[in-house]
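Handout, page 2. Input:
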Amino acid sequence: MNNLSKVSETAILTLRSRVVESRKNHPVISDPVGVELLRRIEKQAPEGSIKSLLHRKLPGTLTNPLALRARKYDSFAINFIKSQPDGIIVNLGAGFDTRYWRMNNERIKYFEVDLPEVIEAKKTLIGDLINYEMLSTSVLEDDWIEHIASLQTSNILLMAEGLFMYLPENEVIRTFTKISETFSNSKIIFEVVNKKYTQGFRKRMVEQKMKRRMGCSAGSSYNYGVQNAREIENYGNGIKVVEEWSYFDDKDIKPSFLRLFCNVRFMSRTQWTIVADLD
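Output:
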């Protein structure tokens, strides 16, 4: 646990958010393995920044959207497997995600990709529960792409929940190009932020806001964004945007009045999810 990077601390915040929401009287998500994982982290965490992250009160304006996002991505994954029983799901930058168990389907071909120190920590904590393949590498490297391609016999679903916005723009685009050249008859689902929050005073504003909300600098700096979802179609041949989703679309968003902004673009397209086909 000592060697988690600042960005990787977001894995703990995301996990805690799911657990907090799962314990409410009317939970938006059920995550029993997440609860157990957090218990083990709390038991083993050393003193310092990680320990403080585990005990800091998290605002509902943070935990609710993160839990809704997890639930939506679970739905994407479950529907994919229903239509493609032999398909492969690849969870990019998985962190301390527990989607594999929330899907409740041990027959699925499931992979996680993350930095070596995160994979090592996860194996140390819940290695006794893991029965899928974990790839210790950066999502910006090509080795995981080549490995998954060597296994492809059916459609592939790539998922990047809360990942690409923290990475260098040129590297994200290069990775999309490589993915589009490698995979066909597949999908990618990923979260983005509006490009205006990756530069200038708006970038600094987001950094300050996130530090206040989370009490640390983990995941507070956005580096990659788009102004319009269709921009990603220019990253490579065969990329086609087929769906978009934001927290404002969810009936369980809190406070509930935020639902009124689902069709207000400057709100709903601040941070949202894009679904694209890879043909």
